[in-house]
Specification:
Layout lengths: L3 E3 L3 H17 L5 H14 L1 E3 L2 E2 L1 E2 L3 H31 L4 H34 L2 E3 L2 E5 L3 H17 L5 H14 L1 E3 L2 E5 L3 H17 L5 H14 L1 E5 L2 E4 L1 E2 L3 H17 L5 H14 L1 E2 L28 H5 L6
Antiparallel strand pairs: 1-2, 2-3, 4-5, 5-6, 6-7, 7-8, 8-9, 9-10, 11-12
Helix pairs in contact: 1-2, 1-10, 2-3, 3-4, 4-5, 5-6, 6-7, 7-8, 8-9, 9-10
Length: 325
């Protein structure tokens, strides 16, 4: 079986995580790109497919440029929020204060709806286009303008329906992202049904409420299984579906164990908790036995990457940012 495996160690990751936190704080977040690249490097080289590790080739210079743009965009959001609050205080109780407050919050919400896909696109752009497995390259070919459209419409409808549309939004988002990810000559898709996810959310919410959160263990397991089992791997006319071998006891140990690791150590155990989580996600994702590893060694049919996205007439696609969230 061509299994996926993660071999990250808590103490190894702690040394990276601790230094990253200190440097990010002391540098007022300006060393965040350097810290993030160190983290991604470690996670990649500790993730194996068929006993061969992934390699991350991204550098900090390209990431830093994207991060500065993200940082400035965040400042704009903060200024809008503070400006709206200041006007509210100045015109307390008046109609003007209500109008100004509503307008500022609408603008803020709209920017947040735009900002989220921007970060997601930039992160996938940078991570996947700089990840190797031997000679095989991965890539993300999505267009920022289309992703913004999917996220913006989905976010608005989810807000207006008090979260009900969220299941449909998530399925559309996952489908778009997976359809624009390549790994050598492999392509991907997502076959999940929105109504199935909605019923899963509905069942999880009410049963968790009735059982004071205990059902959350089974809900987490079912959500993981739904995500994994609906991922389709394609190679020409061949299609393969991933599967999960996680059980409820393992989910219970993961959730309770991570909570105790973080709570009892006052946060110091976060590195160990993160490694346990990542190990669970990777090691319980099963590749079908009929999948031949040679399917992904042929890179001759790789599709156009996001480097050519600038050919699009949309200004967002000409920008095509790259950074890590």
């Amino acid at each position: 079986m061509n299994s996926l495996k993660f071999e990250g160690k808590g103490f190894e990751f702690f040394k990276i995580y601790f230094v990253n936190v200190i440097l990010t704080i002391l540098s007022l977040t300006f060393l965040y790109p350097w810290a993030k690249v160190r983290k991604i490097n470690y996670l990649c080289r500790k993730t194996f497919l068929a006993e061969k590790p992934f390699i991350f080739t991204g550098g900090t210079k390209e990431f830093f440029k994207g991060y500065i743009k993200t940082f400035l965009a965040s400042l704009i959001l903060i200024v809008i929020y503070i400006g709206g609050s200041a006007h509210l205080a100045s015109f307390q109780g008046s109609i003007i204060s209500v109008v100004i407050t509503m307008v500022s919050y609408v603008i803020l919400l709209g920017l947040l709806y735009f900002f989220a896909p921007l970060v997601l696109h930039g992160s996938l752009n940078y991570r996947l286009n700089h990840t190797l497995w031997g000679e095989v390259r991965s890539s993300y070919t999505g267009e920022l303008s289309k992703l913004v459209s999917v996220c913006f419409i989905g976010s608005i409808l989810t807000t207006l329906t008090a979260g009900i549309y969220g299941a449909w939004y998530l399925v559309k988002l996952l489908k778009y992202l997976l359809q624009h990810i390549r790994f050598g000559s492999l392509s991907f898709d997502f076959n999940g049904e929105s109504k199935d996810l909605f019923l899963l959310f509905l069942k999880g919410f009410f049963l968790s409420l009735i059982t004071f959160g205990i059902y959350g263990i089974w809900f987490t397991k079912q959500l993981y299984e739904y995500s994994v089992k609906n991922i389709v791997v394609k190679k020409g006319d061949h299609e393969f579906k991933l599967s999960s071998n996680a059980n409820s006891l393992e989910v219970f140990e993961l959730i309770i164990g991570n909570f105790l690791l973080i709570f009892l150590t006052l946060g110091i155990g976060t590195s160990w908790a993160y490694m346990r989580y990542y190990r669970f996600i990777i090691n319980h994702c099963i590749i079908p036995e009929e999948f031949n590893i040679s399917f992904i060694l042929d890179t001759s049919n790789e599709v156009e990457t996001t480097e050519n996205a600038g050919l699009s007439k949309n200004w967002l696609d000409k920008w095509n940012p790259t950074f890590i969230a």
